[in-house]
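Hey all, quick one. A colleague (J.T.) asked me to put the nicotinamide-adenine-dinucleotide job into the tracker so the inputs and the structure tokens live in one place instead of scattered across chat threads. No bug as far as I know, just bookkeeping. Sequence used:
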Amino acid sequence: MKIALLGYGKMGHEIESAALGHGHTVVATFDIDHPASVDNLRSCGAEVVIDFSQPNAVIDNIALVASAQLPVVIGTTGWDSSLPIILAQVAQAKIGCVVGSNFSVGVNLFLEIVRTASRLLGTAGYDAYISEAHHRTKKDFPSGTALRIGDAVLSEMKSKVRISTELPAGAASPPDALLITSIRAGGITGTHTVGFESEEDSIELVHRAKNRRGFAYGAVVAAEWIVNRTGFYRFEEHITEILNDR
Ligand SMILES: NC(=O)c1ccc[n+]([C@@H]2O[C@H](COP(=O)([O-])OP(=O)(O)OC[C@H]3O[C@@H](n4cnc5c(N)ncnc54)[C@H](O)[C@@H]3O)[C@@H](O)[C@H]2O)c1
């Protein structure tokens, strides 16, 4: 498979290694200094595009990919408010698109564990919170993964009805808000903690990424899966199919 990379930073390089390891070729790489155009996306011979760039670049990048009529995997996070525009671009151009706030297989299994824990501990009256930590250069917060984990908790815990990323000034934190706190420090690859609190004990579930290889592997497998499909898919909703198709 011939792959073009939009964004050639930490993840772009990791994806290049994973793609080569899977027998694919990276035919073009684009970044802020070497931007893509419809012409060079077409002429490079790419069969699929993988975007790990920056949140403010995603709308323009997907417009280019749509014009070039290429399927795309979007790993960039922090553009959730632009989802309707991306959905419209994908539908109008009839291209394939897989998006994932976290392409790690382990994180997606962790989400299942969080759902089960939230159901059990919610019924038992526990309070819950989420904490996420990433390297200092990450631009968006909370992380896309923390928001997905938040959705998983809200879907199973009746006492929590909304996500909050800040504490109210001079007032108690409302019990129906699920608080997400963010840490940005050093080179942390990505750590997500879900905590459950009762008067008697504390329970913590932690996912700690050791490196970026897991994200890159998932993105390459998603690219293999989308290359001959059209439509919009979320990695977390199709992970079983995507992994079974390898
Ligand atoms: N979904 C996942 O599993 C996952 C995992 C890790 C990181 N991420 C996300 O991937 C993105 C990239 O992360 P990173 O650590 O590689 O960042 P990075 O800063 O190391 O690299 C970003 C790259 O994007 C390029 N870029 C910036 N603006 C661009 C534009 N307009 N067009 C094309 N390229 C542009 C930069 O030049 C750079 O090459 C972030 O949004 C991050 O949150 C997602």
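Adding what we noticed when we looked at it: The chain is about 40% helix and 25% strand. The mean pLDDT is 96.
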